[in-house]
Amino acid sequence: MMFTISTAFEDLAVCDAETIFALSSGHGRCGVAVVRVSGPASSMVLRNMAGLTQALPPPRTALLRRITDPQSKELLDRGLVLWFKGPHSFTGEDSAEFHIHGGPAVITAVLQALGSLEGVRPAEAGEFTRRAFHAGKLGLTEVEGLGDLIHAETEAQRRQALRQMDGELGRLYQDWSYRLKRCLAHVEAFIDFSEDELIEDGVLNQVDSSVRQLETEIERHLKDERRGERLRTGVQVVIAGATNAGKSSLLNTLCQRPAAIVSPIAGTTRDIVETSLDIGGFPVLLSDTAGLRDSSDSVEREGVRRARQRVEQADLTLVVVDSTQLPPDPQLVAAFLQEHLSTVLPSPEAGMTAASDRVLLVLNKSDLVPEEQRERTEGELRERPGLPPACFLSCSTSTGLEDFLTVLQSRVKTLCGDPLSGAPSLTQARHRAHLQQSVQALNQYHQYRDQDLALAAEGVRLALTHLGRITGRVGAEEILDIIFRDFCIGK
Amino acid sequence: MLAQKLHLLRHNVLSFVSSRTGSDLTRRQYDVIVVGGGHAGTEAAAAAARLGAETLLITQKIMTIGALSCNPSLGGVGKGQLVREVDALDGLCGRAGDSAGVHFSILNRSKGPAVWGPRAQLDRERYRQFIQSELLSTPRLTVLEGSVDELLVSQPNPEEPGHHRVTGIRLGNLPQTSHNKLGEFWPIPPDRAGVTESVDGSHPILSSSVVLTTGTFLSGSLFMGQTTSPGGRMGDAQSCAGLSYTLKETLGLRVGRLRTGTPPRIVKESVDLSLAQLQAPDKQPTPFSFLNTHTRCKPEEQLPCYLTHTTPGVERVVRESVHLNCHIQQDAKGPRYCPSIESRVLRFPGRRHQVWLEPEGLTSDLLYPQGLSMTMPPELQLRLLREIPALHRAEIRTPGYGVQYDFVCPTQLTPSLQVKSTQGLFLAGQINGTTGYEEAAAQGLWAGVNAGRTALSLPPMALSRTQSYIGVLIDDLVGRGVTEPYRMFTSRAEFRTYLRPDNADLRLTPRGFEEVGCVTLRRYKKAVSVRDGLQEALMALQSVALSSTRWREKLGNISLSENKSTTLNGLDLLQYKDVSFEMLASAFPECLSQYFEYSQRLKIEAVYRPHCEKQSREMERIRSEESLSLPSDMDYLSLPVSLSQEVREILDRVRPNTLGAATRLPGMTPAGIIHLLNYVLRTGQRNRHTEHRNRSSQKEGEKGQLCASNIPISQ
């Protein structure tokens, strides 16, 4: 819903005139971050941001430069820059790389500076690889891998978008999108029907003021240094499972403090409890959720709803199971867990399957299970296809904690290696770019309002397309739906 | 004498062709058979014949060929664009409109030339006469009065995709019609009035291409008040029961049900027009056709329309009669934008709705109340009308009624409008779920083109949605399907600033001649000369360059936003609202005055050109996705690429025609598209190699071939 094919796939087969950029290294604690630029404007980018007014450096040679903001000329960082003349580059196009310091502030500043340049925009998911594909830089056999990459990246973006749309910022964008949709629908109604129908007087005047209001709001938002809200950063890890499996105990164990109330009473945790952690040097946002069960208590039901929603948005889900509830016969355990996972995880269409590497099973209260049964069960579950890795653990005695942390750490590390999973600076750059283009397009509406309504409508359409890159695409049918809802079109 | 002619026509039209070919007496085989003589059927038959195919048009009543079953008008916003495009491809409806129009106006005149809507009120008789005489004078086209009882199908050609193949039609018993004065509209040319032969009731006629344009006649039922009767139009025989069976049962096509309706016709004399608001036509009529410089109706001969409004009394009658009104209680999908007065009132209560009183023709004594389509019992229709002041003593000539009919879900068609599962079977018009004369004509023309091409062993062709409204229409139909009768709006066309009514000839006519074959040489020459003239004029405009200060001196007081020293050429200047071509031509008469005839087109081009250039990248993307066709017989469930089961099932169910259509499917993933693209490119390459080897030995089978040529991929 958030990222349709068309947005994620917009440049399927075109020799692109646009220049794109993206953070190519993962986020988290890293010394050096790599930002890649590809497209015809790459040399312009280098000249503008690395102060290379004379000549470009020899291709594929690192050069230490001061990196500055092209508009304000403010120093952003000192780092290495590299120039790749097409076709001798990964994408086959002119390309450039910036190797900068890994702090979030520096990365954000550089990405925003890039986004402010004309004809340069943040890359869509998998776009670098796709350009390489179209330039013939990838063998056809490597395309299967490209598919997987795009899948992973769009999935990461989708999850991230879901998370954002939950927040204050998401609601703001959704609201803009809704109002813009109405504006467009009303202009379109005026174009397609006003000659034959009774379209209320003043429809266009209303649109005028709505568009102006939107422009003001978006511009103010773009100027606002606080950016509305802090994007939740880090890998999103969610603890989920049945009531009283020990989810809150796991949270407390992992953060080594009693962040969540634990009690033997089922249903103790009702809302989401969040805490930030550092796991193996990577930022993690750990959430504890209400135990999943059918409840007649409306507060608890809401907690369960939130829990399920959070699981859907998670990068990694830790499914906690009470070991004492496992079937005593180890051979039956796999089937039992499979069944259990299907009740905890969202349906497979959401892109998450039990076998996915986004799930870990935590078999808690292992101290209450006979050692012999535990070992045989462990043997049974080892590398079982279709089941995520399972770790026995006791939150009360800390037995098994070391092994579990090792597994968790490697998962988090893999997730952080994906530069798109939850990197807030890149998201911000994308949003800014689209919002700026949206405002520009709205100017076109005013410019042509009295001269040519078709061109004025084009401006609103374009603005909506850019906003749609953040909130989801809007098709012609949706506009027609609004028209028919708001007007009596009867001819 | 008249009776004799009638007899000849109704039973022996088949013999006309034989009289021309001279060898056998009765032709029982045609290149193309078109079933139905409405807007889709006539365009289809004419297009197939223009292409060079021996074509047979079969209709229940020759007299109703070219009849306007509903509103006496053509064109409008979005629809006018379609008429211009059909005309650019040498179709009939634009010229017929110019011949039959009695009230011309360009809608949306103040909203920008891209969304101008050429429209005309028509004289029903003149329209019918024009279409009938045009068809009669079309070489290679034969018209037969009859009812088609069955579609003949056999095993498919194994080298092409599909489960069936069309082989012809079987005529049913000819309906006993009682029309008269036929000869008046349908003179028999001497060279055709030759041999007579009778045709028995179940007569097969063979053809490898059949176009069905059955309109509302496919399992049609008529509704008025609480009575229902089978049929597709009041006054005409029911039909197509056998055809309906073949489509559903033999071919297994999915069908849905839609409804529409028509208003009562009112006796003009009984209307108090002084209580309605007069709507004058344009002072100077603008012809639909690129071939015409003026219309048959002279400016001063045009008839006015009248505007009036509903009252609370109308709403009361609707509410009181709901229980007597079968049609609106049914759940077949009706259009949201052309609803009956009943559904307008029920959906938007307490409002005043517009009613247009439109002339039906120069000599007609009737008025058509646009906006008052209704299905209540006739006595209540009269009560309702009389609640409107101007109609307070109105008399009804024929009451309004509703129609429900089957349509074939158009996602089962290819972009050439062929049924995917049945080789040689084409569908056009309301049978595909559309509404409107213009939508029908556009599809008819394109189905006729492809039926003709198939018959002549040429590969099928598609129109891109980046190039024409016809392309948008067909792509929407076959790609997305319909849930209500589909009507064209300009907002459906994402490139409407390029798809303008003024440039339809440049967009379509050259291609129609050079590639498609449906455009005559005369029209082609005209379009080429216009194209060259415009090109020269644009160059001439660009060649005059001055600083903005100098421009101000030359043209007087105009507001230019550029600063003083900027150099602007004539084309730049023409973008300004206050600058006309005439002004520039008077400033530079020596190089511009020769292009006066293009002044309006040049002004429009200047304003839109920069925007169209900005959109060209997006257009290029859509075109290349459209050009990657996916074979319709692709076995998605076992395709050897990594696709999830869900994606496979979606693809298998919808069977998109192109990669572009696949990307627009809900549930399709980006990764799935990449795998599909990869597969298509690989197969395409393999095909090209095979083709290369085979080219010398045999004629290549172009159909369903993967054309990946404009995907930039180097190996």
Automatic annotation (TrEMBL), chain A:
Gene3D superfamilies, A to Z: P-loop containing nucleotide triphosphate hydrolases, Probable tRNA modification gtpase trme, domain 1, tRNA modification GTPase MnmE domain 2
The protein's role, per its UniProt record: GTPase component of the GTPBP3-MTO1 complex that catalyzes the 5-taurinomethyluridine (taum(5)U) modification at the 34th wobble position (U34) of mitochondrial tRNAs (mt-tRNAs), which plays a role in mt-tRNA decoding and mitochondrial translation. Taum(5)U formation on mammalian mt-tRNA requires the presence of both GTPBP3-mediated GTPase activity and MTO1 catalytic activity.
GO MF, one example: GTPase activity
GO cellular component entries: mitochondrion
Residue ranges of every copy of the TrmE-type G domain listed in the record: 234-413
UniProt main location, coarse: mitochondrion
Cellular localisation: Mitochondrion
Keywords from the UniProt entry: GTP-binding, Hydrolase, Mitochondrion, Nucleotide-binding, Transit peptide, tRNA processing
Obligatory cofactor(s): K(+)
SUPFAM superfamilies for this protein: P-loop containing nucleoside triphosphate hydrolases, TrmE connector domain
Catalytic activity: GTP + H2O = GDP + phosphate + H(+)
Source species: Oncorhynchus tshawytscha
One of the protein's GO biological processes: tRNA wobble uridine modification
Keyword Transit peptide in annotation: yes
Keyword presence, GTP-binding: yes
Full protein name: 5-taurinomethyluridine-[tRNA] synthase subunit GTPB3, mitochondrial
TrEMBL record, chain B:
InterPro entries recorded: FAD/NAD-bd_sf, GIDA_C_N, MnmG-rel, MnmG_C, MnmG_C_subdom, MnmG_C_subdom_sf, MnmG_N
Keyword Flavoprotein: yes
Comp. bias regions, Basic and acidic residues: 693-703
Family matches, as SMART domains: GIDA_assoc_3 (SM01228)
Gene Ontology biological-process annotations: mitochondrial tRNA wobble uridine modification; tRNA methylation
Domain tRNA uridine 5-carboxymethylaminomethyl modification enzyme C-terminal subdomain: 606-678
Pfam families, alphabetized: GIDA, GIDA_C_1st, SAM_GIDA_C
GO terms assigned for molecular function: flavin adenine dinucleotide binding
Protein keywords: FAD, Flavoprotein
Cofactor: FAD
GO annotation, cellular component aspect: cytosol; mitochondrion
Stretch list, region Disordered: 685-715
Protein family per UniProt: Belongs to the MnmG family.
Name this polypeptide is given: tRNA uridine 5-carboxymethylaminomethyl modification enzyme C-terminal subdomain domain-containing protein
Organism of origin: Oncorhynchus tshawytscha
Phylogenetic classification of the source organism: Eukaryota, Metazoa, Chordata, Craniata, Vertebrata
